[in-house]
UniProtKB/TrEMBL annotation:
Keywords (A to Z) from UniProt: Oxidoreductase
GO annotation, biological process: bile acid metabolic process
Protein name: NAD(P)-dependent dehydrogenase (Short-subunit alcohol dehydrogenase family)
Organism field: Alkalibacterium olivapovliticus
InterPro entries: NAD(P)-bd_dom_sf, SDR_fam
A UniProt-annotated Pfam family: adh_short_C2
Family: Belongs to the short-chain dehydrogenases/reductases (SDR) family.
Superkingdom of source: Bacteria
Region (Disordered) location: 1-36
Molecular function via GO: oxidoreductase activity, acting on CH-OH group of donors
Length: 290
């Protein structure tokens, strides 16, 4: 059986694994796999995942719940996705908080953190995952409004959530920032998005060395996904670009969110106690030397 065939056999168990936009795809995204074996790696921990309603964020939230964490996740607009993911986390047995709003709004970040601390008393894991991208073949088509929106969601939000959470992060806590393969190899049709991910990588490295962080033994790392098949992809790229999308790596195929989420578990758990300032590349075998 080829690697591609193995992935095709990983069928989602229930329709909560699907995103509303899945009906527009040739194939459905898979955010959960029966092959994952939890081991209480996050038992008793409190985690915040921004953009946790679908795709990679939902896959990560689900594994955190399976590993015993209490999970708070944010989302922007898709109520149906948020309800599905919330229901799945509760089905697993997790305590859950859900917040709708704009991560690029500092007041919203403060509101989320305040409610989590009021409810659970601490924060052990902060995953800055929420992001957005816009396909533009010419830089001349990238408006000031688009630049502001992309950077506000992808970069400003990290500062807002970290500033809000830092006083409440436990000693040895973990901050995980989602970056992207585009930070390393670029993308000619996602120029502003690629720029934000370069910022995320540099910020991750810088924050990990900051004395305010090191004094509390907080670890700061990043996950740089390659081509992962989520609802964002067909909604971003033109149809003719999807045929070859994600096939340039050694494995010759796009990845699924469930294949990426264990990296977030590793960085959130004590297994990565000697890892900080680093980026884990989950990209199907694209060598980026970074």
């Amino acid at each position: 059986m080829t690697e591609q065939d193995k992935v095709k056999t990983q069928k989602p168990k229930k329709d909560y694994l699907m995103n509303d936009e899945s009906k527009n795809m040739d194939r459905e995204p898979v955010i959960e796999s029966d092959s994952y074996k939890p081991a209480d790696k996050l038992k008793g921990k409190v985690a915040i995942v921004t953009g946790g309603d679908s795709g990679i964020g939902a896959a990560t939230s689900i594994l955190y719940a399976k590993e015993g964490a209490k999970v708070a996740f944010t989302y922007h607009s898709s109520d149906d996705d948020a309800k599905r993911t919330e229901s799945r986390l509760k089905e697993i047995g997790a305590e859950v908080l859900v917040f709708k709003g704009d991560v690029g709004d500092e007041a919203y970040a403060n509101e989320v953190v305040d409610k989590v601390v009021e409810t659970w008393g601490k924060i052990d894991v902060l995953v800055n995952h929420a992001g957005e991208q816009h396909y533009q073949s010419s830089i001349m088509d990238i408006t000031a409004e688009q630049i502001d929106r992309t950077y506000r969601t992808n970069v400003f939000s990290m500062f807002y959530f970290i500033k809000a959470a830092l006083p409440h992060l436990t000693e040895g806590a973990s901050i995980i920032n989602t970056s992207s393969i585009t930070a390393y190899k670029g993308n000619p049709t996602l120029m502003d998005y690629s720029g934000t991910n370069g910022a995320r990588v540099s910020f991750t490295r810088s924050l990990s060395q900051n004395q305010e962080i090191t004094d509390k033994k907080i670890r700061v790392n990043s996950v740089a996904p390659g081509p992962i098949w989520t609802p964002l992809i067909p909604s971003t790229f033109p149809e003719d670009a999807l045929e070859s999308w994600g096939k340039d790596g050694a494995l010759g195929r796009p990845g699924e969110a469930y294949e990426l989420a264990p990296a977030y578990v590793y960085l959130a758990s004590d297994d990565s106690s000697y890892v900080t300032g680093q980026t884990i590349h989950v990209n199907g075998g694209v060598i980026v030397n970074g």
